[in-house]
Amino acid sequence: MAAACSRNHSRESKSPFCFILRGNIMGFHIYRAVACLILTISPCFAEDDHEMEEFLKREYSLSKPYQGVGSLGSSHWELMGDAMVTTDQVRLTPEMQSRQGAVWSRIPCHLKDWEMQVHFKVHGQGKKNLNGDGLAIWYTKERMQKGPVFGNMDNFTGLGVFVDTYPNEEKFIEAQKKRYTPRTQRIFPFVLAMVGNGSISYDHDRDGRPTELGGCNAMVRNLKHDTFLFIRYVRRRLTVMIDIDGQHEWRDCLDIPGVRLPQGYYFGASAITGDLSDNHDIISLKLYQLTVLRSQKEVDEEEEITIPSVDNIELLRLDQNEEGMSGIAIFFTVLFSMLGCIFLIVICLVLYSHWNESRRKRFY
Ligand SMILES: *[C@@H]1O[C@H](CO)[C@@H](O)[C@H](O)[C@H]1NC(C)=O
Ligand SMILES: *[C@@H]1O[C@H](CO)[C@@H](O)[C@H](O)[C@H]1NC(C)=O
Ligand SMILES: [Ca+2]
After folding, report:
1. Ligand 1 atom 1: residue of nearest CA
2. Is residue 188 in some structural domain?
3. Number of domain units in the chain
4. Which of 33, 68, 163, 361 could serve as a FRET partner for 180 with CA atoms 20 to 30 Å apart?
5. Least distant ligand from the CA of 201
6. Sheet (strand 157-164) strand order
7. What CATH number corresponds to the domain at position 275?
8. Residue 91, domain member (yes or no)
9. Tell me: the pLDDT tens digits for 305-332?
């Protein structure tokens, strides 16, 4: 299993794919790790083990000193709305009411497999839940549009990953003097991913729950250390991880197969404030190209993708509504079925040796 961890990464110590051995909390991975132990075969890790090489693509990356960003024509990135560049960051919104700002790549991205590392910072005076509204990272067909979805248009086409810092739904229900049940309660800030096809609306009042692919909570505000978001798209698998504890460790946030995203979309980042506000800063966006082996069939299939979609989206929703089995529950289910199997095997062996012995006795 250690092999899964020693995969060469072209950059420092941040290897997000060491997460399984670092005790991940997501049930699926526990299950996978256990399955690997049981079967003691390596194909489990085949997918992650694919020799992947990474190359930083400067044309899709944004980093200090942000040379030419916001000036006409000379940079790969364009600013919009209230966004502005300083020496240390691209500030999407300042800590003021009713602002929105964005930074968009000028060049459509035709890479098949990529990962985006987002170094960001959300900070302000507001005490807990007296701040808003959050920021978003985009890979969409449209660019440079203003709107209500973290400063971008609604009914967007493509992928949005949101760092939502204000619990609209909870506040709305509280305002109606209804109780907010703990079962559905979420801790904010919350990271959430959504895929739009041009006619799916983001439900702002419900913090996007009806259309989410998954997410996780992430206490990202007012931290002294650096905070990162990691979005990986490889062979239609969308993985989002966060590194917000200052430990240089990636924590799993969501991992969804069957996400179909066309090529040639634009990367961007946007943020919005309302009655409540925060500074929403992007320190860097680093895009890595990944080279992955794929069959001709896969290549052909990918070329057919023209509208973003997610396979089995209904099942995904169903899963989330039922809250599913927790990681622990799955772990114990697997553990006990394993013990059950071993028990059976032992009984069989005992019976067999018994039978063997009595047969020998008969023989002599
Ligand atoms: C977009 O997705 C919705 C919901 O999944 C679906 O009803 C609609 O037909 C899709 N639109 C397009 C253009 O594919
Ligand atoms: C978004 O799409 C929905 C459903 O297709 C539609 O009702 C709504 O008017 C659209 N909103 C915008 C801003 O285009
Ligand atoms: Ca919200």
Report:
1. 197
2. yes
3. 1
4. 163
5. 2
6. 77-81, 100-105, 266-272, 134-140, 157-164, 190-197, 214-217
7. 2.60.120.200
8. yes
9. 999 999 988 887 766 655 545 666 777 8
